[in-house]
Amino acid sequence: MGAKTLYDKLWDAHVVRENDDGICLIYIDRHLIHEVTSPQAFEGLRLAERSPWRREANLAVPDHNVPTTDRSQGIADPVSRLQVETLDKNCAEFGITEFKMDDPRQGIVHVIGPEEGATLPGMTVVCGDSHTSTHGALGALAHGIGTSEVEHVLATQCLIQKKSKNMLVSVDGDLGHGISAKDIVLAIIGEIGTAGGTGYAIEFGGSAIEALSVEGRMTVCNMAIEAGARAGMVAVDDKTTEYVRGRPYAPKGDVWEQAVTAWKKLHSDVEARFDRVIQLDASKIAPQVTWGTTPEMVVPVGGRVPNPEDEGNVVKREGMQRALRYMGLQAGTPIGEIALDKIFIGSCTNSRIEDLRVAADVVRGRKVATSVKQALIVPGSGLIKRQAEQEGLDKVFMEAGFEWREPGCSMCLAMNADRLEAGERCASTSNRNFEGRQGHGGRTHLVSPAMAAAAAVTGHFVDVRALL
Amino acid sequence: MESFKRLTGLVAPIDRSNVDTDAIIPKQFLKSIKRTGFGPNLFDEWRYLDHGEPDMDNSQRPVNPDFVLNLPRYQGATILLARENFGSGSSREHAPWALLDYGFRVIIAPSFADIFFNNCFINGILPITLDELAVDRLFADVALNEGYTLTVDLETQTISLPNGDTMNYKVDVFRRHCLLHGLDDIALTLQYIKEIKAYERRRRVEAPWLFPEEGL
Ligand code: SF4
């Protein structure tokens, strides 16, 4: 048998059947569900009088629409409330485990999957959400699906899929002090572009990826989709198994030992061939800041807003001009001169405990700049929130002038009450800076948690390394 | 799903790359629990001058006269011409639902985002990938000729231009078959119940941790 990549191994282990033309039926081990992309799928199931194929393979949580302030009053917006209630009803009707809004384990679906041990190495993991790629950090094959596919997985535990090509993004060398996983992945997207990974499954490897915590690897895999790849993944190592050990849904006893033995094989063989290989030098990566309306519009914090006139490609140039207009920026402006109205630290990209710790380290003993109208910290899950409170991080943030919120997607996409007003500029640790993403007319700059914290206390972008 | 064999239709151009699904259908409309009714909010932020919310009467809203789909010459278009990486970002199937509800059955672009591409087929929309030069030519043709129509044939995998030229494209055998016959994926997969069960039996032995007795 030939040498295989990690993706080949994960794929091969899940093929139920293959057509002559390469279309496969793929078995899905874990299906995560949230309130936005599932109602029509459950409705379809009901109309066809079908029931879930394997109830216990599903785990549901409301996250997009939930309020991040006091929840005792429920959800004020009736449309949001109906969507969350519909999820509750569907899960009750079909017998699917759900962490409801008032459950201490509730949180962003991509944060709670790994946190609960509900996503494990070697699994196929899907969810009606493009950032499902996050779970690939555990050595799983994880990707987003549409609502019809949500229904398909519910009904059959399978998906109809064609295999992607293999890409390796190898990041080697030592990351500088104050530089994080977020900077790595923004630098990667800056390099290959938002369509660079289209048609590929990306494996992130190299010594800099190995040196990251599992949480950091989640940040990187989270944004694989922003590079155009449905799935991102990292090989299993001791950090992965240590991360999983003892989690509520992780295997126990003999089965644990058996699982760990199997998981140790979840890496690309030395001889494995990739269709495309990208190499990055970690030591050259500076803190990254996006200036435009796609994640590939990114520069190091010491840089300037680029000039569209320097771009040869017409479609690209017009895209840059449009982005500058939308963002209210002038070509040539130093990134450090961009002032912020709001700060958002949260989302499935950067709301885990280590993100909050890093941000707190920057904030400790400082105050949110008076020019900043609002600075939000939204932990990724109830358990992370509790952990942070035990460590006293909530106090650090609140003393500095941040708001300490309940877990959820929040201002990452502004489906709840947290949002930017038109023209407001935000340093955000989320993953998308699209037009209107954080609120109609809102202007988003994507950064790491440390950089968002630094922007909060100075009121403008600044190289966080100067504050450490 | 409605089958797709052949369509002659008016072409509307969206001349920008990386059109993401947030732009195709903004998040506030995702609060719906239905599959239909998204058409009036397709490209909402570009199409109207005010900020749209789900409960609004769209016919009363101020439209953006400069947005291409609002131009009289493109009313009734069923074929959308687009640039690279169309449908990037969120996996929301509301994007193809909105395009379909508006009336688009075909989208032509140099490249599509993977999840969106797949979601199109499942909903009876034909996404066609053509090389950049061909797409450039179509953009130029559309701009010059009011009432520009194309005939898209899925059986022969060809696009016929008004001047008689044809362009060829390729669609996966399986996807083409499903679209031509309007087949439902779930019904297809359920023909293989035996295989799925056999796979599960094998995996239960190989990887018992994936089938814990207590479940979730
Ligand atoms: S945090 Fe943002 S990107 Fe992540 S699942 Fe929620 S809305 Fe999507």
Report on the structure:
Chain A has 468 residues and is α/β, with parallel strands linked by helices. In chain A, 31% of the residues lie in helices and 17% in strands. Chain A has 15 helices and 19 strands. Chain A has helices at residues 6-12, 39-47, 78-94, 109-115, 147-156, 181-192, 207-211, 214-222, 238-244, 253-263, 314-327, 353-363, 382-390, 393-400, 449-458, and strands at 15-18, 23-27, 30-33, 58-60, 97-98, 124-127, 141-144, 158-162, 165-172, 200-205, 231-233, 276-281, 288-290, 298-300, 342-345, 374-377, 403-404, 425-428, 443-446. In chain A, helix 6 (181-192) packs parallel to helix 8. Chain B is built from 8 helices and 7 strands, in the order E-H-H-E-H-E-H-E-H-E-E-E-H-H-H. By secondary structure, chain B is of the alpha/beta class. Chain B is 31% helix and 14% strand. Chain B is globular, with a radius of gyration of 20 Å. In chain B, strands 4-3-2-1-5-6-7 form a 7-stranded mixed sheet. At the A-B interface, strand 2, helix 2, helix 3, helix 5 and strand 8 of A face helix 4, helix 6, helix 7 and helix 8 of B. Iron/sulfur cluster is lined by residues 63-64, 108, 110, 129, 131, 347-348, 409, 412-413, 430-431 of chain A. Iron/sulfur cluster binds next to loops of chain A.
